[in-house]
Structures are given as C-alpha cells and as structure tokens.
Amino acid sequence: EMDGALEEAFSRLAESRTNP
Amino acid sequence: GGVGMPSGSYVSPKTVWLPAMKAKGLEISGTFARRSGVIQMDLSLTNKAMSVMVDFAIQFNKNSFGLAPAGPLQILTPLSPNQTIDVSLPLSTVGPIMKMEPLNNLQFTHRQIHVHATQELNATFENTQRDRGNCQYPLSLLFVEDGKMDRQVFLATWKDIPSENESQFQIKDIHLNSDAATNKLQGINIFTIAKRTVEGQDMLYQSVKLTNGIWVLAELRMQTVNPNYMLSVKCRAPEVSQFVYQCYELVLRN
Question: Which of B152, B131, B165 is nearest to B237 (CA)?
C-alpha cells in the first residue's frame, strides 16, 4: 500500500513538472 | 574506463598540471579516479632536466572538500633524465577545509631533490626544489557509493528545497536511451530512484551524496525525438549544482 502511494507520488511529481 | 576498472567509471586523460619550465625540469601531469570507493590521484612525473631527481613529496593546500594525500608518494627509485614514472596516490577527505574558487580547485606543492654530478670535482651535490601546481577535479570523485536516497525521503526533500535552489542545464546532442544513461550515471554513483514517462518524455529522478554529506537531487528529462536532455538540479548548497552538471556532461559524452 505504501509502495503504491510512493509510485503515485512520483507520477504526480513528473506530471506537475511537465504541466506546471 | 580502462583495464581493470568497473564499467561506467570514466577517467579523463592526464593533463599537464605543472610544466617543466616552471619546475626546473620536472613535468607533472595527472588525472583523478574513484575506484571502488577509493579516491586516487594518478600522476606521471617526467624528468626533463639534466640532473637525477630523488625524494619526491607532495602536499595539498586547504581545499573545499578536505582532499589530502592518504600517504606519502611511493616513488622509491631515482628519476633519470628523460625518464617518466607513473604513480597513484590515494586521497582522503579529512584534510583541512577552505572554500576554493572554483569550488573544485586544488593547489599543491611538490618537492623533489635534484642530484647534480660535477665531473671536475668528481662529486655530487643536491638542491631541493619546491613548486606550486594547480589542478581541478571532477566533483564525481566525491560521489559516494551509498548515495541512493530513500524514495520517500527524496519526495519530501524535493518538495522541501525551495525553487530558488533549483538550477537547470541543457545537455545537448546525447544519443542514449534512458536505460543506457541510467547505467552510465550509476557508474559514477548517480543513482536513479524513479523513472516516469509523461507525454513522450522519460523523466529520471536521481540522487547523489557527496563525501561531506551534502545530498544532490536531480531530474533528467529526455525525449526520444530530441537529442537534448534537460537536467534540473536541486540542492541545499546550490553552489555545487554546476559541478554536478559537469559530471553529467562528462560521463554521458564518454
């Protein structure tokens, strides 16, 4: 569950960097 | 890398740090390497004088990261005219610290004894020569093997470091895919923590830890259709960022 949340957090970071 | 080196660890060719003209005939050239966690200064000493040289020694001035020789120069034989000797000097990072400009600058003092023979007197005499040299080292010398940051800590640290501390660099004309780049960078202890693909761009999140405990976080962005990478570096000590960028350039191009 924790791993899933971390994976999701990295995806959000990458998204936010591409589309600020 | 050369023979016997772990793959991915690039070592720059030696350059002249002390020309013979400035050191009464002794030419010193060198480069740096980090091999399995050991920092080494690889030196070539060439005798371009008429006299034999003996009793070599080297000292470092204070420098930004406390680099210092971990032992004496192991040159046990005299250096004859026209002779070159190669030696590796292991370095520690516990020497005295003073911030240098540029940050990666290293000044050293070298001493050797010239032995002169006089045919008239059928005797020899010695004189000691001291010379000051200067060189710069790649910051990757200081990238430690346990520099892979915990993923959760990475996310929190990335958020925590203010955007004023972020520097961006373009790395032009690199024809490597993200896996090849990841492998090359890992060879100098730049570790990839996460990879995401967004709108055709691969984004690598990476961490580096310096010998003095400073952490550097990076985002490397690459597109399959564009050979130019974009590197963003975040660090609480932003003055190191451009030197980290230089290491990316060096390793990705070699």
Answer: B165
ipTM of the predicted structure? 0.93
C-alpha separations of A18 from A15, B197, B201, B203, B235 in Å: 5, 10, 9, 9, 20
Report the DSSP pairing between strands B15-18 and B52-60: unpaired
Q: What is the number of other CB atoms lying within 10 angstroms of the CB of residue B86? A: 12
Buried-exposed string B232-243: b where 16+ CB fall within 10 A, e elsewhere: bbbbeebebbeb
pLDDT value of position A1: 64
User: H-helix or E-strand containing B196?
Assistant: strand B191-198
In this predicted model, what pLDDT tens digit does every residue of B188-221 receive, in sequence order?
999 999 999 999 999 999 999 999 999 999 999 9
Cβ atoms of B148 and B189 within 8 Å: the answer is: no
Q: Give pLDDT, residue B23.
A: 85
Q: Is the pLDDT of residue B2 over 80?
A: no
- Residue B143: both structure tokens together: 């990238």
Residue in chain A lying closest to B206 (CA): A10
Q: Does B205 touch chain A (CB under 8 A)?
A: yes
**Alpha-carbon gap, residue B110 to B133, rounded angstroms:** 7
Q: How confident is the model at residue B96 (pLDDT cuts 50, 70, 90)?
A: very high
CA distance A6 to chain B (A): 7
Interface-testing mutation among A8, A13, A16, A19, with chain B (most B C-beta atoms within 10 A): A13
Token look-up 């050239």 returns: B29
A2-15: pLDDT as tens digits: 788 999 999 999 99
